[in-house]
């Protein structure tokens, strides 16, 4: 069942950002049946990356956790713009990519930034399957990128 997730965000003192403009040829989110799939979202804040580089060398893991949280917030903004956040019934999957120094193996702890946000906002409906993948480089030299797959209420019309 859908909840008042916008109220949950407000209670947490979290404001959804504007949807980040795509940096290539794609849309920020796409509805397929009762699911919304987001494109990979970077931790952009007002169109700017707060940091660039590899986690484990140029970016520390604690900051990368915060960036994963921001990227997830950007993904939620894309969902909200497409169907309205209050139409979400559950978070099904979080996929996180971490631009990693070759010796860095803490990708799961970094992507916890996204996962913890889902639990804070959605409670039990925020429990999800997840992948946390280390990669050589991400677009714009971002340290993290996050994708979401969410389930939406049947018959939810969404936004236009």
TrEMBL record:
Listed Gene3D superfamilies: RutC-like
Pfam families for the chain: YjgF_endoribonc
Source taxonomy: Bacteria, Bacillati, Actinomycetota, Actinomycetes, Mycobacteriales
InterPro entries to which the protein is assigned, alphabetical: Endoribo_LPSP/chorism_mut-like, RutC-like_sf
Bilayer-crossing regions: none
Domain Endoribonuclease L-PSP/chorismate mutase-like: 9-151
Organism: Corynebacterium godavarianum
This protein's name: RidA family protein
Residues making up the signal peptide according to the UniProt record: none
